Amino acid sequence: MLKPALTLVLATHNAGKLAELQALFGPLGVRLQSQAELGIPEAAEPHRTFVENALAKARHASAASGLPALADDAGLCVEAFGGQPGVDTAFYATRFGYPKGDAHNVRALLEQMQGLSDRRAALVSTLVALRTPDDPEPLVASGRLHGLITTEAVGTHGFGFDPVLYLPEHGQTCAQLPPELKNRLSHRGQAARAMLELMRQRWLGLEGAA
Q1: 73 catalytic per annotation
Q2: Any domain includes 33
Q3: Residue pair 113/79 in contact by the 8 Å Cβ criterion
Q4: Which residues does 73 contact at the CB level (< 8 Å), separation at least 6?
Q5: What does the pLDDT average to over 103-123?
Q6: Is 100 annotated as a binding residue?
Q7: How far apart are CA 200 and CA 209, in angstroms?
């Protein structure tokens, strides 16, 4: 039997992210409440790694709410660019004079990769959970969906770089996959499942439970 429900503040203002993660964490007896609902502003993200930014966001949300917190940081890492744009993924298009936005990010990426033979890339997500802002042992889980950058956008599902990340083992881009399969394979889905197991073992004392 699960222990009483655990409430965490989710360090996001994105309602879609809240719904997606709540569906994953709900069966474990974890309730997520977005920081937007509590009037908590977004945290600064000055760091150069996903884990540092996720930790900063989680600490900020926990300190402002008095609750345990969960945060994620995610982005696209392109091998030919030394892992960039990484933590700057959301603003990638602005480097090249385009407005911020998914379609502009895709356009800028395809332009910058013209003529490159190394098309390897990965969508990466890092989740951090902590009990208090000063928790000395935060839980950290990561997920990575690797593929190849196409030469043009293909597919209508998903968002972000989904139309240009081709998965060789499936013969399709992320944007061509059925949403259920894409969510199962996704970097965020991988990270969430790993985090669920950490919470089950470390916080809820359910190690070995089904």
Answers
A1: yes
A2: yes
A3: no
A4: 45, 50, 51, 53, 54, 57, 87, 125, 126
A5: 97
A6: no
A7: 8
